[in-house]
Design brief:
The protein contains 13 helices and 17 strands. The strands form 5 sheets. It has a 4-stranded mixed β-sheet. Strands 6-5-7-10 form a 4-stranded parallel β-sheet, with helices on both faces. The chain is α/β, with parallel strands linked by helices. Bound molecules: pyridoxal-5'-phosphate.
């Protein structure tokens, strides 16, 4: 009997090691990994530059404390601010921590300007912002909150609809005590639902008009995943606050809150903290991840690969419309929505040595590393085709 808690439904495979886009199982099988630790492995497994960065730092110093200067953190924060809307970065260790800290920043901002009554956060119903006690109530999903009463107050919800208007009655939902709108730029767990650029622009406009903050959760869709450094760049807008995590560490746990100067000013000494946040090992790996991703042409290549991948997937969809309902996504954040439950399909892909993972709405998430090779995409396409052909 396992001594691990039962809170995961684990598949019966274990891996010896990973290299690039592949995982090698203990039973000697080679799998094409398009789970990527759920959009975490931006550069695949055991990228030599990341291995080197981690080893180099491991020989110097593992951990200090935020009571002292943080040169590796300074360097990573500078890379982020140089390439984004952000003026300041606050490091934490995970996505949920980053979204929670973002909520704290929004509230503290209004406190600092004498409007502490503005403290409610407006989120999309059935979104995903992590699994901590506040984050599950931000997500507003029954599945996640069931059994965890009492309810954490301070969250209101709007629906995101596939029909128009996408956000019905949103203006009415913004009250005098609303501090911020917090949404995922692309809804990941919710089924790879891309919020259209027009809607993002509209949200930005409303936030400006109502003088509230826009928090765009890019924990899953940020750091090059959609072909831009941040997914909101497609819509040509800027948030006030953005939590990030997953892809920035390439497999090393890192989270961060990105902020404009306007809101960051309220985070004075003592307002937030994290023992491990900005740990030198994490920062060294993060620096190495961004050195690759921010290289000239890296993201253009992600877009190129994505166009090819999505196009090939749409061809399969057109050939098997009874199996596949829709191909969704942006960049290499891809969802294959099936006509019915996806469990069997994911299992069949796995039997053919392609690893993928589910999302809501019968969606199969396909999340290759951002440096995936075209030949590896071709291999995935071949396997997906084969499974479609033999489905039912
Ligand atoms: C994964 C995810 C989180 C939570 O991240 P953890 O590191 O699991 O806490 C938050 N927001 C979004 C959009 C995510 O995809």
């Amino acid at each position: 009997m396992s001594s691990l808690a039962n809170n995961y439904n684990r598949r019966k495979i274990s891996f010896k090691y990973g290299k690039g886009s592949f995982l090698y199982s203990t039973s000697g099988k080679k799998y094409l990994d398009m789970v990527g630790g759920i959009a975490v492995l931006s550069l695949g497994h055991s990228h030599p530059k990341l291995v080197k960065a981690l080893n180099k730092q491991a020989k110097k110093v593992w951990h200090i404390s935020n009571a002292f200067q943080a040169p590796e953190g300074e360097k990573l924060a500078k890379k982020i601010t140089k390439n984004s809307f952000a003026d300041k970065v606050m490091f934490v260790n995970s996505g949920a921590e980053a979204t929670e800290a973002s909520i704290k920043v929004a509230r503290r901002y209004f406190f600092s300007i004498g409007k502490s009554y503005k403290n409610r956060i407006l989120c999309i119903k059935n979104s995903f912002h992590g699994r901590t006690i506040a984050a599950i109530y931000a997500s507003g999903s029954k599945k996640m909150t069931e059994g965890f009463l009492p309810k954490v107050p301070g969250f209101d919800h709007i629906e995101f609809k596939n029909s128009k208007p996408r956000f019905p009655n949103i203006r009415k939902k913004i009250k005098k005590n609303t501090a911020a709108i917090m949404i995922e730029t692309v809804m990941g767990e919710g089924g790879i639902k891309v919020i259209p650029d027009k809607c993002l622009k509209y949200l930005r406009k409303i936030c400006n008009e109502k003088k509230i903050l826009l928090i765009l959760d890019e924990v899953q869709c940020g750091i090059g995943r959609t072909g831009k450094f941040f997914a909101f760049e497609h819509a040509n807008i800027k948030p006030d606050i953005t939590p990030i995590a997953k892809g920035i560490g390439g497999g090393f746990p890192i989270g961060a809150v990105l902020m404009t100067n306007k809101v960051a000013k309220c985070m004075t000494p003592g307002t937030h903290g994290s023992t491990f946040g900005g740990n030198p090992l994490a920062m060294s790996v993060g620096n190495s991840v961004l050195d690759q991703i921010l290289k000239k042409n890296f993201l253009t290549n992600v877009t190129k690969l994505s166009k090819y991948f999505l196009n090939e997937l749409n061809k399969i969809k057109n050939k098997y419309p009874n199996v596949i309902k829709e191909i969704r996504g942006k960049g290499l954040l891809i969802g294959i929505q099936l006509q019915s439950d996806q469990t069997k399909f994911i299992k069949s892909l796995e039997k053919n040595y392609l690893l993928t993972i589910r999302a809501a709405e019968n969606v199969i998430r396909v999340l290759p590393p951002l440096n995936v090779k075209k030949t590896e995409i071709d291999l995935a396409i071949k396997i997906i085709k084969k499974v479609c052909k033999n489905y039912n």
